[in-house]
Design a protein that fits this description.
This protein is mostly helical and about 120 residues long. The chain has a domain of about 55 residues. Helix content is about 70%, strand content about 5%. The protein is built from 2 helices and 2 strands, in the order H-E-E-H. About 15% of the residues have low confidence.
């Protein structure tokens, strides 16, 4: 029981002691990043002539760097949110188990008290 209570207090303190910060947003069942900016627009390859094609390749190279940065940010935000969600759910489950255990002990104590009268 003490072990469970210590876990509950530790998790609760960790969740309530620090500001609640989430990395992304969830709306209508769709998750989106909050701090990664806009997804880079995919460049179009211009095949009209060699010069236009070479410019397109340069744009693709720039886009690849921007996309890499964007998607690394997206993954980092998603991972942070996953940890927050898991920790919150685990804390809620621990609280539920502790409450059920306390109610059971309180009911047992009340029954013993009434039986001894």
């Amino acid at each position: 029981m003490i072990k469970n209570l210590t876990l509950i207090l530790t998790v609760t303190a960790a969740l309530t002691g620090a500001p609640h910060v989430n990395a992304g947003t969830l709306s209508a069942g769709k998750w989106a990043t909050a701090g990664c900016g806009n997804k880079p627009e995919t460049p179009i390859i211009d095949q009209s002539n060699a010069e236009a094609f070479n410019k397109s390749v340069a744009k693709i190279n720039d886009w690849q760097q921007q996309a890499k940065t964007y998607y690394e940010c997206l993954i980092n935000e998603a991972n942070k949110d996953n940890v927050i969600i898991a920790d919150s759910a685990n804390a809620a489950q621990a609280e539920y188990r502790a409450t059920v255990e306390k109610i059971g002990k309180d009911a047992d104590a009340a029954k013993k008290k009434l039986d001894s009268q």
